[in-house]
Amino acid sequence: MALPAGLPLAGRELVTTAWVRPLNGDDEEWLAAQPPTRSGASVVSELLARAVVRLGPWAPPPPERLRDLPIADRDLLLLAVRTSTYGHRFDVVLSCTACEQPMDVSFTAADIPVQPRQTPGAPLLSDLPDGRGGVLEVALRPPNGRDQEAVAVAAAGGDATPPVDLLLQRCLVGVGGGPGGADGWERLPVPTRGALAAAVDEASAKVELAMDLSCPECGVDFEADLDLAGYVLGEFLAPTGTVLYELHLLATAYHWSEHAIMSMPSPRRRALAGLVAQDLRSQGRG
User: Fold this and answer.
1) pTM of the model
2) What is the pLDDT of residues 133-173, one digit of tens each?
3) For residues 18 and 3, is the Cβ–Cβ distance under 8 A?
4) In 3D, which of 276, 210, 280, 211 has the Cα closest to residue 249?
């Protein structure tokens, strides 16, 4: 698959291709064992380390390289793992923004727009208002998985700085020819800080789905932005009991080892377990 942003390397080389595999039983058990207090960004990082079989020249890729990927690339890889495991159809339940009634919404992976980055691999220079009628040149980059994890750790540790500000500080490469980061952030006028978020968004690739919906209950039209990464992670948190039941069925029927069954791609394991269960029901034993 092609990555919408890519991972810049030394010498202006840009890694733009990756390969993933479906989840297997070991992955599902690992996901089910994750504590609810663990940040979604760190779960995604480790899940990608398990399911991404190749990233550019690396097979398998070093986990740190997966953390360095821009958020859009990580979201697309997560989406690819999901579609290879569960298929391309999505059935979600959303709430009306007016009457708050639940409504069923279906779409496919092909309906999710992927917007590549216009200037891949290089920091973006942008002239932002300085609050005094002039402009201030800032250099910035798109946020990556490492940034997401760091912001989550800071928030969990009690840092009172708004998470979006922490993320923008990390994406700030330079201000007016000087350094960026937290020091550069402190030198930014307030109006410039407000414009920085829009500039980072413009500089980033995107894998986002905004749906125009109409509530069947109250008739109100509204737009819903789906948190794709959060939704896919929720799908992946399969009940451990389901995996164990399928393991029991296949081990009993075929006498395969636990390792052989749990390393099997999840779609194949479910399909075979379904056939075994169907046979047992036809024999009056299920």
Assistant:
1) 0.83
2) 888 899 988 899 999 999 999 999 999 999 999 999 999 99
3) yes
4) 276
